[in-house]
TrEMBL record:
GO terms for molecular function: ATP binding; GTP binding; hydrolase activity. InterPro entries: Gliding_Motility_GTPase (IPR052705), Gpn (IPR004130), P-loop_NTPase (IPR027417). Keywords: ATP-binding, GTP-binding, Hydrolase, Nucleotide-binding. It comes from Streptomyces caelestis. The lineage of its organism: Bacteria, Bacillati, Actinomycetota, Actinomycetes, Kitasatosporales. CDD domains: Ras_like_GTPase. Belongs to the GPN-loop GTPase family. Pfam families: ATP_bind_1. It comes from the Bacteria. This is ATP-binding protein.
Amino acid sequence: MASALTLDRFVAPTVTATAKIVVAGAFGVGKTTFVGSVSEVPPVHMEETITRASALVDDLARTPEKSTTTVGIDFGRKHLGDDLVLYLFGTPGQARFRFLWEELIVGALGALVLVDPRDLDASHEILTLLEETEVAYAVAVNQFDGAPRYPLTEIHEALALEEHTPLSVCDARERASCMQTLIHLTEYLAHLAHRLEPRP
């Protein structure tokens, strides 16, 4: 009985499918906050204090209060319905960790890319990597306090997204907002999977 109870702490007995989802984006865009907002278990964070050396490399102009940075991964888990569990892997944002981005997207069903409306250009490198590796993704604009609010059509064009790529707005601090972006992503991934199913 004890072992059964222990197993129940991990996934519900009704779960029939799991999926690896990568939460990606530029430095300081809110990935760690996002994973923490939606994870149903205490999230794992691999963060270190920002040193003077890293401050010289990483742009802190938009996040002057930021004192730590992800140097490994963020990890969380979320049941999405009774039968599906999402395992969330947040990437470090700095381009010097590209080797880790490449490792984390292996085996991922899809990715959610968070972007900062104050610096859309910072997202191009991770978007290019996902396209090169053919990992399906959706994009969510993390609407920081005081950040400009652009029409989604303009952001879609500025990021040079494919017409079918989902684009939404979220607040990484709010669970309901983050959940909606995950639902958009999984619906999109399900649609792609349905299109790829062989016809009888």
